[in-house]
Design goal:
Layout lengths: L32 H6 L10 E2 L6 E2 L6 E2 L7 E2 L1 H11 L6 E7 L2 E7 L5 E8 L8 H8 L7
The chain binds zinc ion.
The site of zinc ion (ZN) has 7 residues, from loops.
Length: 145
């Protein structure tokens, strides 16, 4: 066991799209698996919500945000950050992260790996629940606990 833990300046839920796939396994003896594939799970009753920003489906509604303005349709977490990035003029050392409770923030990386919040950006008003999320909460079986 090592007691050393390198301190990485990781910021909560800030993440990027990474289309890279790491698993590229050959299927030498995978013929028997085809039978399993045939037993596909039941088709979900509703199609996934579509992101208003990028137009792609949102599979992780719990991690989605609502778009600003009327309707408040669900959008991807990453798309919310992109939206903010369009409005904010970021310096090279700044970036946008989610700091919790419906707030994003512009943070700056300081020398030494620390971060400073330069600007707090309220995104979702506390206490407001968009319709799509209310619906999700009411649904009896939420996939992916
Ligand atoms: Zn999106």
């Amino acid at each position: 066991m090592s007691t050393q833990s390198p301190q990485k300046p990781e910021n909560g839920r800030f993440r990027r799209h990474r289309p890279r796939k790491t698993k590229a396994q050959g299927s030498a003896q995978g013929e028997q698996r085809q039978e399993r594939k045939a037993a596909a799970p039941a088709v979900p009753p509703k199609p996934p919500q579509t992101c208003k920003i990028c137009g792609k489906p949102i599979f992780d509604l719990a991690g989605a945000f609502s778009a600003p303005g009327e309707g408040g349709e669900p959008i991807h977490f990453d798309c919310a950050i992109e939206l903010i990035a369009r409005d904010e003029v970021l310096k090279p050392d700044e970036k946008i992260v989610y700091i919790g409770q419906g707030n994003f923030a512009v943070i700056a990386q300081l020398p030494g790996g620390k971060f400073a919040i330069r600007k707090k950006i309220p995104w979702e008003l506390q206490g407001t629940v968009p319709a799509w999320r209310r619906e999700m909460m009411l649904s009896p079986d939420i996939p992916g606990k």
